[in-house]
Design brief:
Helix content of chain A: 25-40%
Order of helices and strands of chain B: HEHEHEHEEHHEHEHE
Low-confidence stretches of chain B: 223-241, 272-306
Distance between the termini of chain B: 22 Å
Strand content of chain A: 25-35%
Structural class of chain B: alpha/beta
Number of strands of chain A: 10
Mean pLDDT of chain B: 76
Oligomer: heterodimer
Largest interface: A-B, 27 and 28 residues
Distance between the termini of chain A: 31 Å
Radius of gyration of chain A: 20 Å
Strand order of the largest sheet of chain B: 3-2-1-4-5
Mean pLDDT of chain A: 84
Strand content of chain B: 15-25%
C-alpha cells in the first residue's frame, strides 16, 4: 500500500493548491506508474498497485512492460515473472500459465493459473515432478494425453529452471 | 448448524477477497475494449446463460433469484431462444419445468466444498467442447455485498468474433487469432470461477441467517423431551432372566425394568444411577449369568413439538 500512497502524494498536494474542493481520486487515475493486478485464483500479490516494470514470459516471447506500453494481449508461458517495484527492489514469481493484458490507461493484469514466489519452490519436488512428467510423456497413447504430458513437462522444466 | 454455517461463511469470505481481485482483473479487458459499455437499447440479448448455483438449499432466495433473472432474460418459455447451462442442481430444479428445451448442460456436485479453479475449468471446457454457438453469453450469479445482502448480477462473456468487431481492438498490439482464442478460453474460466466464488459466499452468508432463524424457531417449540431407553437381553433367552439380573445387581426383581422400557428424563436419570452400580459389578465379576445381560442403551431420543 505504501507505494500507492506515495504515488498519490503529489496529486493530493496539487489538489489542495489548485482546487478549493477535494477532487475524487478514482483508483484508475495514476500520474505515472502502472496499476498492476497480479493474482492467481487463490492469492493476490498485487491489486492495482503501481510498479516500475514487469517482465513476463509469453508464448510470443518474453518481454518487459514499462508504463505507457502499447495495449496488448498475451498468453503466459510457464516461467518467471519479475516485478520491479517503485523502490527499486524486485520480486520473482513462478507462473504456470495464464493471461496478460495491457490496456490504454497503462493498467496491467497478469492472471496466472498458479503463481508462487520463486524462493518457495521445492527444487527436489520439482525435479521428481519433472521425472514423472517425462514418464507420462513416454507412456502417453493418445494425442490428447501426449499434449497434456507435454504441457506437464514444460511446466516442470520451467519450475526446475526457476528454482536454480 | 448455525455454528457450522458460520465457519463455512468465514472461509468463503476469506477466499472471496483474493478471488474478487482476480475476477475483476479478468473482466477488465471487456470493459477496456468497451464491449460492456454499449447502449442499453441496442445491446443484443445474450444467447448463452450460465446459471451459477449449487446443490444445496436452506439459503433463502439465493438460487431462486438466479432462476428469476434467467427467466427474465429468456422471456416466455415457449419462445425462449437462449441456451442455459446450469451449475448446481438447484438451478436445474428451478428451470427444468418451463425451460427444459433450453437447458443444454447441467453440472452437479457443487456446494459441498468451496469451489476451486478446477471446477470452473471443467465448466468452461465443457462449454467450449460442447460447441455452444454463442456470440454473447452471460454468467448469472449473486454478488456478495455484506453478510445480510447480495445482489444478482450478470458477468458478460463474448465470443472472439464480437471481440474482433470491437472498435477498440485495433489499439491492441499483436492480437492474432491463436492468442485471442487462448485468452478468451482462460478468461471464460476465470469469470466463471469468480462468479462461483461470489455466489458461494452469498450462499453461505444466507445459509447462516437461515440457520439462525431455524434455531430460534426450534427453541420456541422445544417443549418436551422423552427419552426411550431399551434394556436389551441376550437373544437366546426368550424370557429375560430377571432373577439373575436382580440378584447380581442387588436390585429387587420389581426394580428390573420391563422390555422395552421408556421413561421421562427424570426416570432415566434414576434408572441410570441404579444401573451404574450394576455395570461396575457385572464387569468385575468373572462368572455369572448376569454378565451376559447387555445393559442399557439409549436407542432413541424423541422430541415432541407442538
Amino acid at each position: 500500500m505504501n507505494h500507492i500512497t506515495r504515488a498519490f502524494v503529489p496529486l493530493i498536494r496539487n489538489a489542495n493548491k489548485f482546487h478549493k474542493y477535494p477532487i475524487l481520486l478514482s483508483s484508475r487515475t495514476y500520474a505515472d506508474g502502472m496499476p498492476l493486478t497480479f493474482a492467481s485464483p487463490s492469492q493476490v500479490y498485487y491489486d492495482q498497485a503501481s510498479v516500475k516494470q514487469i517482465d513476463v514470459p509469453s508464448f510470443s516471447g518474453s518481454f518487459g512492460i514499462l508504463p505507457k506500453h502499447v495495449p496488448c494481449l498475451a498468453v503466459l508461458k510457464p516461467g518467471v515473472v519479475t516485478i520491479y517495484e517503485e523502490d527499486g527492489s524486485n520480486k520473482k514469481y513462478f507462473v504456470s500459465s495464464g493471461s496478460i493484458s495491457i490496456h490504454e490507461d497503462s493498467s496491467v493484469q497478469v492472471l496466472a493459473e498458479e503463481a508462487i514466489p520463486v524462493d518457495q519452490i521445492d527444487k527436489q519436488a520439482a525435479q521428481s515432478g519433472l521425472a514423472t512428467a517425462q514418464q507420462h510423456l513416454t507412456s502417453a497413447s493418445s494425442d490428447l494425453e501426449r499434449a497434456e504430458a507435454q504441457i506437464e513437462v514444460e511446466v516442470h522444466e520451467a519450475l526446475v529452471k526457476a528454482a536454480e | 448448524m448455525k455454528m457450522v454455517s458460520a465457519a463455512k461463511y468465514a472461509r468463503a469470505e476469506r477466499e472471496l477477497k483474493s478471488a474478487r481481485s482476480y475476477g475483476l482483473g479478468a473482466q477488465t479487458f471487456y470493459e477496456q475494449a468497451e464491449l460492456n459499455k454499449e447502449e442499453e437499447a441496442e445491446k443484443p440479448k445474450p444467447t448463452l446463460l450460465i446459471a451459477v448455483s449449487s446443490d444445496r438449499g436452506l439459503c433463502g432466495a439465493i438460487h431462486s433469484s438466479v432462476g428469476k433473472r434467467i427467466k427474465a432474460i429468456s422471456g416466455p418459455a415457449a419462445e425462449a431462444q437462449t441456451q442455459i447451462i446450469c451449475v448446481g442442481d438447484k438451478a436445474r430444479a428451478l428451470l427444468q419445468r418451463d425451460y427444459a428445451n433450453c437447458i443444454t448442460q447441467v453440472f452437479t456436485d457443487f456446494g459441498k466444498k468451496p469451489p476451486i479453479f478446477q471446477d470452473a475449468v471443467v465448466v468452461a471446457n465443457a462449454i467450449l467442447a460442447g460447441g455452444q454457438d454463442f456470440t454473447i453469453g452471460s454468467v448469472i450469479y449473486n454478488r456478495f455485498k455484506s453478510v445480510v445482502s447480495y445482489e444478482t448480477k450478470e458477468a458478460p462473456v463474448y465470443s472472439s468474433e464480437v471481440v474482433n468487431q470491437s472498435s477498440k481492438i485495433a489499439l491492441y498490439d499483436s492480437v492474432d487469432a491463436e492468442v485471442l482464442q487462448s485468452y478468451q478460453e482462460f478468461t471464460l474460466a476465470s469469470i466463471i470461477y469468480y462468479a462461483m466464488k461470489e455466489n458461494a459466499c452469498s450462499e453461505q452468508s444466507s445459509r447462516m441467517t437461515a440457520m439462525d432463524g431455524a434455531s430460534k424457531n426450534a427453541g420456541k417449540n422445544f417443549v418436551q423431551m422423552r427419552i426411550v431407553v431399551v434394556v436389551s437381553y441376550p437373544l437366546f433367552e426368550a424370557v429375560p432372566n430377571t432373577e439373575a439380573f436382580a440378584a447380581d445387581s442387588n436390585m429387587s426383581t420389581d426394580a428390573v425394568p420391563p422390555y422395552p422400557w421408556s421413561g421421562t428424563p427424570a426416570e432415566v436419570q434414576q434408572l441410570g444411577q441404579l444401573k451404574s452400580g450394576f455395570l461396575k459389578r457385572s464387569f468385575s465379576s468373572s462368572n455369572n449369568a448376569a454378565k451376559r445381560i447387555v445393559v442399557v442403551s439409549v436407542l432413541q431420543v424423541e422430541f415432541d413439538f407442538w
